[in-house]
Amino acid sequence: MDDTAGGTGLTFSRRSLIAAGTLGAAVPAIGGAVAALPSAPARASLAATRRVTIYAEALPGGLVGYGLQRGQATVPGPILEMYEGDTLEITLVNTTNQRLSIHPHGVDYSTGSDGSPLNDSYNDPGETRTYVWRSREMFAAAGRRFMPGSAGYWHYHDHAMGTDHGTAGVAKGLYGALIVRRRGDILPDKQFTVVFHDMTINNRMAPNTPMFEANLGQRVEWIAIGHGNLFHTFHLHAHRWADNRTGMLESLGDPSPVIDNKDLNPGSSFGFQVLAGEGVGPGAWMYHCHVQNHSDGGMAGIFLVRNADGSMPPGAEEAIHRFQGHTHGTSGSHTDHQGAHG
Known about the structure:
This protein has two domains: 1-186, Cupredoxins -  blue copper proteins (Immunoglobulin-like), CATH 2.60.40.420; 188-342, Immunoglobulin-like (Sandwich). The chain contains four helices and 22 strands. The chain has helices spanning 167-172, 292-296, 316-325, 334-337, and strands at 34-35, 49-58, 64-67, 79-83, 87-94, 103-104, 128-134, 139-141, 145-147, 152-157, 175-181, 190-197, 200-201, 211-215, 219-227, 233-236, 241-242, 258-259, 261-263, 269-275, 283-289, 300-306. The longest helix has 10 residues, at 316-325.
């Protein structure tokens, strides 16, 4: 990875996401690094061009992932971040034997950086190609209105493997989160990417879905992404957020509804920040699809909120063991449904 930031002196730091499928056991190729922002937002006049190299690599189990370093691809891929006004130059190295690409949502790009075969924008096997993504701030329009900027919780994915729409690439794990921030946005302590794809979460099913961890009071940022062919909703137990760009209310009069469940359908994405365990305390809290036969079928995971000192809260380990031992299936029997919801 090129750590320089277009001559601005800014650098990428790398933060690990905790995405183990079982307590105390690492799960390969789940979670990702973060091409992160500097610790303090830059002024608008300091809009940067950042350069990053991403490697597309075959992984065990028939998966394929994106990674910031050779040999470190994950599913999902790394979280990519930029401020409005920034440009991100991505050099994609295809180490596989299939064509693939990287296509973004929510930002500006030319046809040459579209990442689709329609525009002859993809990497052949072994090919290296640079894609340029641009972002912009909102600006005034006629009629006392404003045109929106790029800020939001977006995502990126393959658009060339298997079909001209990248169906095989997405199915194999070529996807990740893209965040465009406004200057002055609050930065989180932890970030989690959750991708609902058909009947999987990050290409896994319960009880092997990612278990995300934070300490009580830490600011946690969730990025939820939908892929595949099925309707989903995302529900997080014991936590709620404002249904707007950041998940936080802007003022006492902010009319944004406060929710704890939101539709998450193919191609959609959203994000929000919460304080881990705020008002409810530490514990093993479930996240899952709220389509009942989807959660019963394995679309569920655990958000483990530890005590503020990082220790395990009472009852959490027992709850995790119950989750790991629960048989997720599509049977309609009473036994099969017990434990599907925390």
